[in-house]
Amino acid sequence: MKYFKIIFSIFSVIIINTLILTSCFAEDNGSWETIGEYTDQYNPPISSVLPNGNVLIVNGNPYESDKSAKYYDPENKTFTATNERTGSGASDLIVLNNDLVMLVGGHRTDTSEPFGARTQDSIFSPLRDIQAKIDYRASSPEVEFYNVKTNSWSIGKNLPSAMSWPKGITLKDGRVLVFGGEKVTTEGSYYPSGVRVQIYEPNSDSWKVGAGFIFNSLGDHISSCRNIIVLPNNKVFVQFGASNSTSTLKIYDPVSDIWEDVAEPYPENQIIKHDYYFTSELADGKILLLRGMYLNKEAYLKAKEVKIYNYKDNTWTNAAELPEQLQNPSLTYLSSINKVLVFGYHFDPESYKSSDYYYVTEFYDPLKDVWITGIQNPQAQDPKILLLKNENVMSYGELGSNRNLKLIEIYTPPLPAIKVFINNIAQSYEVDPYIMNGNTMVPLRGIFEQLGATVSWDENTKTAKSIKSNTAVEIRIGSNQAKVNGKELSLEQAAVIMNGSTMVPLRFIAESLGAKVEYDSVQRSVFINIKNEK
């Protein structure tokens, strides 16, 4: 019977700690929620978050003549159609500072001319000293505006020149930068793609042509703009490329209208054909880069590699590798938890089977340089993800083989870590504080010593004893009873072991040692005030 009790006690501790670990793992990784299925011909959908938190969605397929648009209300989980657009197709939606959204890359031609196909004089002709013509079937110079307040569309002034799959961003001063590529052609021969920025001045409702550059070497570059990140020094990091071309990285200075070179992430002998990158900003202005497109075995073997760019000294450093290769990943930075959410799918290009094709959610923690595997979102195919105002993430992708059937899923990230302040001084612990059954749990030794108490540990009884002035506190792992100066008191939450650390209920410990405790649920912060002994 004695041995049975011992075994039962050990088994109970294992079960309790397993449940604790499972609970904390779920909290650390957030959760996905399926919102519903919707039907549209938006392949792919182009979307942007409006100032009111709604999501504007239009058709990104220039082949389609669909002039519809809609916005999604995340709070009420409803779609509402906007007034009919003046054109169709789109490359990007850019939110301005005046309740307007600029649409670029669409067209207002009829369906007999898909993409708005036509030619015009290339602005790159003087640079190449040739009489070149540009075929910009992937886009057109037309611009539309969506008014958030009136829910209506209007025609804007054209871009000075058409660009291939343009993408833009609004600066703090209100100006809009639109980046895109142009392929210069002569008699069917192709020269390296060129890239240019075009600048919109909202005060004068006018455009001007900014600086451009041409790729140095011949090749199958496709100079679509893929990502734009404004750096802390107000310069702009821009990524160009496409899934079947090698990415090009540049920095644009909107003050001097000058392009600056970005150091190559990989030496020339390590660059793979079709080396396509995926990037995301980090908290300190650094940039995370993934090698997330593998069209052959060589690329597949290198697809776990991760780099971090430091704009201050124009250098790249190695980061922890991805746990597994992710094809065509989507990245977004979650500032509330200081992690990058990465969502993509995995398969081996040489032994591809439908059963081997699966989606994966990963988190990158830049402080610890580690990857954390998250909760898988198994339903949407090739989804577009968008960071909402509340820092939830919206996934809008195809469902099954029907490309017109869409699935919306919302990812809710974990809540940010609990912050602890003692006499207004922020505290740090090896294991982050967390909430369990309404109690903030903190590492035992850390909290006792920070409150000025001495700590001893009895390994046989799994009991911690602390003394501060005339107060002695005893607390045992797994017990809902504790002693203060020999008097037994009940605990709402027993002490537990988490990642090798004994975690105890903070409020009970602090108040037992004479401290005052306040909890701010909005800031997720605990404030402890205790008198220092003289």
Summarize the structure.
With 534 residues, the protein is mainly beta.
Walkthrough of the structure:
The protein has 534 residues and is mainly β. 10% of the residues lie in helices and 44% in strands. It is built from five helices and 45 strands. The chain is elongated and about 80 Å long.
List the helices and strands and how they pair.
Elements: H1 2-29, E1 31-39, E2 45-49, E3 55-59, E4 69-73, E5 78-81, E6 92-95, E7 100-104, E8 119-121, H2 125-128, E9 133-135, E10 143-147, E11 152-155, E12 164-170, E13 176-182, E14 184-186, E15 189-190, E16 194-201, E17 206-214, E18 225-230, E19 236-240, E20 248-253, E21 258-261, E22 278-281, E23 287-290, H3 297-302, E24 306-310, E25 315-319, E26 327-334, E27 339-346, E28 358-365, E29 370-373, E30 381-387, E31 393-399, E32 402-412, E33 419-422, E34 425-426, E35 434-436, E36 439-443, H4 444-450, E37 454-458, E38 463-468, E39 471-476, E40 481-484, E41 487-490, E42 496-498, E43 501-505, H5 506-512, E44 516-520, E45 525-529
